[in-house]
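Researcher: Re-running this chain for the archive, since the previous output was lost when a drive failed. Same request as before.
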Amino acid sequence: MKSFGYYKNSLDSILTNSYEDKDEFKKNFHVVMGTMKYSRTLREFFHLYNEVEQKKFDSTEESHKFINEVVSILREKRSELKKVIPILEGVINSRLGLCENTENEIYENLDKLVFFDNTKNISERIQLKENISKSMVGKKSKIVNKSVNPKILSQILAKTYNSEYNNLSESEKDTLKETLYMDKTTLIESFSKLSEKTLTEINGLLSEAKDDNLSSKLVEVKNSVRLMSPSKKNYLELKQLLSDLN
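Model: Regenerated structure tokens:
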């Protein structure tokens, strides 16, 4: 398993490097958001890595307490993180052109504290914490000449999932998880069957419609469904549409 810092950096850079293209950014944002919705553990790792990188304290003592607490929480949850790695790999591997392998010493030190059980000695762990602590004491530095700050995007992601995900029913959460796990072949087959089923439902409603406005709207929806290409986003939209039609 790659370090979590690698996955975090990759997601940050995917959002940052697609930001100028609104359509691409929106698509990537929803894909990453969907991944975050699937795993509470992923959200916690994402949020706490953000916190360690961004938070500032007046004293070393305060920063050390914070680091110790974060490391303790994440070490307890690291085994759960493995469950979402295949999804992260899929999101990243399909967007490698947007990913940047930038070094982040804070993430590297935090990765070692959280995931490595074979750190040589206590002195080494103390030094790793000290390295992180140095970046957390003092005033926040201003970022200049950046069209978008990836850390702000990270924070938006970590905070936004609550309002959207918590509003889903258990059935909708199950559908989301099932869709996120689909491979390409399964997605194409499932999408084709769902599209056909949806079109059959629309045709049935059209044959019964007596109102011209309703018929017109149904024809528009039917044409939109026909133009849809297989994607996880479109699959979920079709699922919702079929549910609304029944």
